[in-house]
Design brief:
Layout (H helix, E strand, L loop, with lengths): L2 H16 L6 E4 L8 H4 E8 L17 E7 L4 E5 L11 H4 L1 H8 L4 E10 L8 E10 L20 H10 L5 E6 L8 H9 L4 E3 L2 H10 L3 E11 L10 H31 L1
The structure holds 8-iodo-guanine (8IG).
């Protein structure tokens, strides 16, 4: 079965299980963003991810594993993907981007990708959300197979970032750099990322964004800076502390993400 066939199967299963046949927007919730779904609207259905073809339950602490259909104020539906597969899980790139391809097959025009990440800009502090303006893919791989030369010039579209800034004018932005992980960077690697133009370090979003664009979706990326990148803060990086920074920020992120999604839905309708 091709990845596209599997995504179609997943979208069909979602439609059957949720009773919703078209989702206008999909949002993947990364660490720190989990409570956001409740702010978007009323949950119509919530399904354990492993009951939908191609999805597997996550084994990572702090990463829940459900797919939700949420009805927004304007009556359209948002697919909330709380089940991210990371490249470092070793399930292959197709598994990593299955959620994005399922979103496209479910009718979405926009993919909102959120994550928790390390920050390199000296002005940023843990708990601060930032927009992704562009990315550098250091994983050495791509979700695209074959001679399919997808343009990534305006990958994190200006149009969507403008909507986010209407909601939150103080949102800063930066270049997301994806490394394969699961280890955090060495301080030398962080200096390398800075030298090549990266502002954010993470382990998820770039591969997903590429697949989203291949599938014809507009992409908005949001990173919660949970920690300063290795070597920029005192002491070592610790997953528990990273999760705690995420939880502390969560209260503010839910309403922010919900307002941005409402803004996108209104813009599409206008
Ligand atoms: I949360 O400092 C989170 N995810 N690569 N580096 C990388 N990924 C991260 C980091 C970080 N913090």
């Amino acid at each position: 079965m091709t990845p596209a066939d599997l995504a179609k199967e997943a979208a069909d299963a979602l439609a059957t299980r949720t009773g919703i046949h078209r989702h206008a927007i999909a949002v993947t919730l990364g660490s720190g963003w989990k409570t956001a779904a409740d702010h978007i609207g009323e949950t119509v259905a919530e399904i354990p991810a492993n009951e939908i073809p191609g999805f597997t339950a996550s084994g990572i602490p702090g990463h829940s594993g459900t797919l939700r259909s949420v009805r927004a104020q304007n009556g359209e539906h948002v697919l909330v993907i709380g089940a991210r597969t990371h490249y470092y899980e070793g399930k292959g790139v197709a598994a990593v981007v299955h959620g994005v391809r399922t979103a496209a097959a479910a009718g979405a025009h926009t993919m909102v990708l959120t994550n928790g990440a390390g920050g390199l800009k000296p002005t940023w502090t843990p708990g601060q959300p930032v927009l992704i303006s562009d990315h550098i893919n250091l994983t050495g791989t791509s979700p695209i197979i074959g001679a399919n030369f997808i343009d990534l010039t305006d990958l994190y579209t200006n149009k969507l970032r403008a909507i986010a800034r209407q909601v939150a004018p103080d949102l800063d932005e930066g270049v997301y750099t994806q490394l394969s992980g699961p280890h955090y960077e060495t301080p030398a690697e962080v200096r390398m990322v800075r030298a090549i133009g990266g502002d954010i370090v993470g382990m998820s979003t770039a591969l997903e964004a590429i697949a989203a664009r291949e599938a014809g979706l507009d992409v908005l990326g949001l990173s919660l800076i949970t920690n300063l990148a290795a070597g920029l803060q005192e002491g070592a990086l610790n997953h528990q502390e990273v999760l705690e920074a995420g939880h502390a920020a969560e209260q503010r992120l839910g309403p922010l993400l919900a307002e941005i999604i409402t803004g996108i839905l209104n813009e599409e309708q206008a």
